[in-house]
Amino acid sequence: EAQRVDSQALDPKLDRILEIIIDEPNRWWIATKRAQQNYDFWPGGIPEFPIPELVLSRAYMKIAEAFAWGNLQIRPGEKIVEIGSSPGGACQWLLDQGASVTGIDPAEMDPRIVKHPNFTHWQSRSLQLKRKLFRPFRILVCDANVAPKYTLDTVEGIVVYPTTNLRALVLTIKLPEWQTSNSIPEFLERVRSWGYADVAARQLGHNRREVCVIAKNRLAVAASD
């Protein structure tokens, strides 16, 4: 019987991973690799985390996995803004972690999220909002169903504004077609140009035709974080 191992107790510098894929009844693909990060130990590449009985959307699992992979910790009461927040799955998880959340979306939010005392809904498109409004936020999440360039243009306009002080970005980059994945290195380089020292992409277990990009440790604001 297989036993689940606590990834926090393992040493990525010493342990090796055995991977087995069975794609036909009598065909096995076997590979081994040296673990480099704690998430290398996630069974099936997906972390385990508590899921409430009521989850508003798949975005709940996506954002939970994204923060686990990026090793992002939410500080009590930290102000987080999400672009493309309807119906509220990601906001639900962020609120569960104790964040103060603002959701930006022209569509309606789930009433249960709207009633939460730590949630604010800006029922608008992000491009219609003045950039100075983003000053209080420390983390920006974006999961909008738009082309990659639109996502990056939108976020860049916020990040590079003089009063913005975002310590981390969690972006979902949609891939209109699989060939778009060839441009991921260019996307990451663009995000790095905004001043973030740690930028990475991963197709999460809960992603579909999309990838998650996390940026943190912004050099220009490191002294104030």
Architecture overview:
The chain is α/β, with parallel strands linked by helices and 225 residues long. It folds into 2 domains: 7-45, no CATH class; 59-224, Rossmann fold (3-Layer(aba) Sandwich). The protein has 5 helices and 9 strands, in the order ββαβαβαββαβαββ. It has helices at 59-69, 89-96, 111-114, 148-159, 184-192; strands at 16-24, 27-34, 79-83, 100-104, 119-122, 139-142, 168-174, 196-202, 210-218. The strands form 2 sheets. Strands 5-4-3-6-7-9-8 form a 7-stranded mixed sheet, sandwiched between helices. It has a two-stranded antiparallel ribbon with strand order 1-2. A hairpin with a 2-residue loop joins strand 1 (16-24) and strand 2. Helix 1 (59-69) packs across helix 2 (89-96). Mean pLDDT is 88; it is low at 1-5.
